[in-house]
Write a structure and sequence with these properties.
By secondary structure, the protein is of the alpha/beta class. The protein is 42% helix and 22% strand. The chain contains eleven helices and 13 strands. The strands form three sheets. A five-stranded mixed beta sheet has the order 1-2-3-7-9, sandwiched between helices. It has a four-stranded mixed beta sheet with strand order 6-5-4-8. Strands 10-11-12-13 form a four-stranded parallel beta sheet, sandwiched between helices.
């Protein structure tokens, strides 16, 4: 017994003292991901992602440590690689880790932390995708006094990962098709750090979407319109504004997110927009962008489209409906430009697939240059 305690204390000293908190945390996430390989090996298959940065309405992001995308829904893991005794309860603001030398360290309640992650994930993927919250601690700790009330939130040690996923899996019906599991994985993968040099603080993909309007105006438009015959007479801001009636921009999925940013920052230079299966906020930002501009309701037109079986359907539809129903000084639902400036279309049974995006684009372009 004494030898085991000594070995554990030595490992704690190495991990908690020699390495910094960020390294310890990332190491814990890797170990949780390794446990999910066992889950997959034993027949409960899914797609694993780490460090997913979900967009929030204020432009910031919420980071999910590890997620497992399956036919049952998405398992969302908050990984805590602490050692020692763990004390906490579901409603408290802070929990405590106490080392063998009686040193105490407080940390934010991981249940509340993961609840915030689930909020933004649900907004991103839609209410029809079930989410399961699992808080995972290191095997080096002991959950000495952890009081939970909600039966749907699990707080476990890492070696219980397989058993916990199995129990949730066996008690829930399938809710996500294999096709949508793959589509969710592809879409959420865009919100991960794709390169080691990326910041730990926000998603590479979200950062690019937010910065895209600047690149568009400074580089892409001058490059394209100087090469092809267009309506622009000069490439200075005045020349680009004068030719805005002959210019449109659109995108699908993350391209749709970029399009919302273009609308917010480049309304002076574009009259037409197509957004497809990718939302960005609740519509208030777009309303503010119109009110900040010198344009009225008849000076732009937006065609929006998604599919009823698209995992982005709920969030995307909610944003567009809010724009048309509540921000009526800026937007009016319409089938033609003479009737208003916002058209919404949904295709029954369509999933998050570029084959459907091509159909949306074909229909959207007919609204613009009639």
């Amino acid at each position: 017994m004494g030898e085991n305690v000594m070995a554990k204390d030595l490992l704690d000293m190495i991990l908690d003292s020699v390495f910094d908190d960020k390294w310890v945390g990332k190491h814990g996430e890797k170990l949780t991901e390794r446990e999910l390989k066992l889950v997959k090996l034993l027949g409960r298959k899914g797609k694993t992602l780490r460090n997913v940065y979900l967009p929030k309405e204020n432009g910031e992001t919420s980071e999910i440590d590890v997620m497992y995308i399956t036919q049952k829904g998405i398992f969302v893991f908050e990984s805590k690689n602490y050692s020692g005794w763990i004390f906490g309860n579901e409603k408290g603001t802070y929990w405590t880790a106490m080392l063998p030398n009686k040193q105490k360290n407080s940390f934010y309640n991981p249940v509340k932390q993961n609840r915030t992650h689930l909020k933004w994930l649900q907004k991103y993927v839609g209410d029809h995708i079930p989410l399961f919250s699992i808080i995972v601690f290191s095997e080096r700790c002991e959950l000495k006094k952890v009081e939970m009330v909600s039966p749907d939130i699990k707080v476990i040690k890492r070696d219980r990962t397989y058993a916990t996923v199995r129990d949730i899996w066996d008690s829930h019906e399938d809710a996500v098709s294999d096709e949508d599991v793959l589509a969710l994985y592809k879409n959420l993968k865009q919100l991960t750090n794709v390169d080691a040099k990326d910041s730990f603080d926000f998603s590479f993909a979200i950062r690019l979407a937010g910065l895209f309007p600047q690149e568009l105006m400074n580089d892409l438009i001058p490059s394209v319109e100087s090469h092809y015959s267009t309506y622009v007479k000069s490439f200075d801001p005045d020349g680009l504004r004068e030719s805005r009636d002959h210019r449109g921009f659109g995108g699908f999925s993350m391209g749709s997110v970029a399009t919302w940013h273009v609308f917010d920052h480049c309304l002076d230079y574009f009259r037409y927009f197509i957004t497809m299966s990718g939302n960005c906020g609740d519509g208030s930002q777009q309303d503010e962008s119109v009110k900040r501009s010198c344009f009225g309701m008849n000076d732009f037109f937006m065609f929006t489209a998604t599919g009823t079986a698209d995992f982005a359907y709920d969030g995307f539809r909610q944003q567009v409906m809010t724009m048309g129903r509540y921000y009526t000084d800026s937007f009016r639902f319409a089938d033609t430009q003479s009737e208003g400036n916002l058209s919404y279309r949904e295709k029954r049974g369509a999933t998050h697939d570029y084959a459907f995006a091509n159909q949306y684009i074909f229909n959207g372009l007919q609204f613009f240059w009639e």
